[in-house]
Design a protein that fits this description.
Chains A, B: Keywords: Magnesium, Metal-binding, Transferase. Chains A, B: Its cofactor is Mg(2+). Chains A, B: This is Polyprenyl synthetase family protein. Chains A, B: Belongs to the FPP/GGPP synthase family. 2 copies of one chain form a homodimer. With 325 residues, chain A is mostly helical. Chain A folds into 2 domains: 118 residues, Orthogonal Bundle (Farnesyl Diphosphate Synthase), CATH 1.10.600.10; 192 residues, Farnesyl Diphosphate Synthase (Orthogonal Bundle), CATH 1.10.600.10. Chain A contains 17 helices and 2 strands. Chain A has a two-stranded antiparallel ribbon with strand order 1-2. In chain A, α3 runs antiparallel to α4, α4 packs antiparallel against α8 and α12 crosses α14. The radius of gyration of chain A is 20 Å and the shape is globular. The model of chain A has no long low-confidence stretch (mean pLDDT 90). At the A-B interface, α4, α6 and α7 of A face α4, α6 and α7 of B.
Amino acid sequence: MMACNREIVARMQSDVPLIPQLAAHLVAAGGKRLRPLLVLAAARVAGYREHGDDMRHVGVAACVEFIHTATLLHDDVVDNSQLRRGLASANAVFGNKASVLVGDFLFARAFQILTADGSLPVMAILSAASATLAEGEVMQMTTQNDLTTTVDRYLQVIYGKTAALFAAACETGAVVAKADDQTREALRQYGANLGMAFQLVDDALDYAADQAVLGKTVGDDFYEGKVTLPVLAAYHAGDSDEQAFWKRTIENNEEQQDGDLERALDLIAKTNAIDVTMAKAREYAEAASAALDQVSDTCRAVNVDMEPLRQLLKDVAIYTVDRAR
Amino acid sequence: MMACNREIVARMQSDVPLIPQLAAHLVAAGGKRLRPLLVLAAARVAGYREHGDDMRHVGVAACVEFIHTATLLHDDVVDNSQLRRGLASANAVFGNKASVLVGDFLFARAFQILTADGSLPVMAILSAASATLAEGEVMQMTTQNDLTTTVDRYLQVIYGKTAALFAAACETGAVVAKADDQTREALRQYGANLGMAFQLVDDALDYAADQAVLGKTVGDDFYEGKVTLPVLAAYHAGDSDEQAFWKRTIENNEEQQDGDLERALDLIAKTNAIDVTMAKAREYAEAASAALDQVSDTCRAVNVDMEPLRQLLKDVAIYTVDRAR
């Protein structure tokens, strides 16, 4: 991960000073670097060993982080967010223009690095995931304020906006390690299910987080009229009076009043909507863990020392859900 | 070009209906498709012949148009433009969110198509051009409202925002045609110089176009405080009173008053700033034309019937400047 961080800093350089300045703002804000970590971990599970200058997985990991960072920059512009991980967002500091353009730069740079790396399968995975990501974001936009959104549709949205890149990160790790097809598919499934669990928990925390502890703001999704599983669960379980409340506040989020968030939190508690969401997250986390059991016997036989890491990734999946307890 | 248009429409499809809807809005608005045309023309000059299902240059041409369209969508959001080619801009119709995200989608889709095409050199050219494009846009942003911008810096900006993709379009055409290095470089130089001429004329027209004839609005750059060659030429040739006018209006474009555009046009006429700009454009157009003389003898000997097309491209370069007369 230290090599990956160095790669990220080295490859975001540009003769145009504002680009590394803005990018550094996000790097300094200190994300979890979960996606590049997944590339590295998946590569190791699949038997990749660094030797000499063959550190391809580090470059691929940096690209995945660039693609993720580009979408964060664009999301914050699109949502007019003023905060990101508790600090002023890049658009709040540098303006919307710079954020859109530096996002574009990072995306282009990612494909420059991947081209130099030269693996068409890795590029196929990451360009497809990037297109799916954009589709997921557009789909999320069209479900906003829309309480007729089905749970299936919601799950499609979070697959696109989050799980697709998690899946791609794990799959590229497997490809770099030249894993067999079964192991590659197992790791892809792990990433996809982990991403679903991760986003479900994120959506639950938006109505449940202890802000001081988790650095998350409660109510952002509510204020934006986003249709997430906690809202859908509470809405579907509500009586007509409660459904009218959700319609008023989610379908016309700009006309929310003082006390609305408090009532939303009460209704979510009353209908056990957080439990519903967390149960769904746990299903995905368990599927992620189970997927790792599908790593091929051949792969396991060759990489005898990967067992502790595989176990750790199984624990990560479960911890993803338990962190919210 | 008809095959290319079909490819563009086919490849912008998505299960998320808003994506082709928004993309079709831009396609319907009917751009000149100059960049994909350059891919096809360069490929032909370099000896590419379509036969059977080997229509790779068409796919590459569509990708170049996708990359260009993505930047147009983002530019209009960034500049808050309400019009594009005389019609309501995509952001005016579909909103900023959708425009940013569909731009991201088109960019990702371009690299998906290129990955399937499988040419690493083509991908290297287009990913580098995309990064340069974003750098050019950021650079333009930092020169906005800044009258200390040098002419060299301005030329760097227009290379990044326009000429780099023109150069890349021509170079990828040559690569698809498996041209020798000399021919590839000749076509790249043609594109780069043509792009410079094209942008210089565009910047001149912003202060000179007969709106009814060219569908261009006069004064957009002025209202935005953009520092282009017509402004720099008029500013540098102006007396202290005139320089004070430019400082007030360009450095604080939001405080422009009624009559300011008219005075700007008068000062530009008085200082022959349009002539200065057009003379520079003509230099580049002539360099573009001359670059085509560097197409290798080997290439010319093999492709005896490319001579009329090569001559046409030379004429295009000169016409790029003469269209403004």
